[in-house]
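[Q] Does anyone have a clean structure-token version of this?
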Amino acid sequence: MQEMNESSQTFASDESFLRRIAPEYYDSNTGKVSSGAFQNSSHTNRMSVDWMRLSTVDDTLRDYRGFGVASISAGLCLSLNQEVERAPQEENPAHCDVVGDKPKFVRHKFREMAEYLRYPSVV
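[A] Here you go.
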């Protein structure tokens, strides 16, 4: 039997991931989050998240004053042709990447389907 490396871990569709939301992606007047909050990191096809099984909202927001956090499921990612890969870091063992192109319709669907656990605040 082949040993699985961490990045190839398969997640159940009901596994949840936490995505930090920067204050500039939140309109406090309308209470809406911009789809830009769900874009890939610059020059990559990866969006950083934390695996909720190994993290909490407070862990994800540590050192990110004023940020919010949203929860997305592995099932949502898969339905949008995105893969979730483990990418643990020394300072963040819960770190994962949502891998795939994120054109506007994908970012909009993430925005619509995310569960907002804490909204960003003005600091």
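[Q] Thanks! Anything notable?
[A] The chain has one domain: 6-118.
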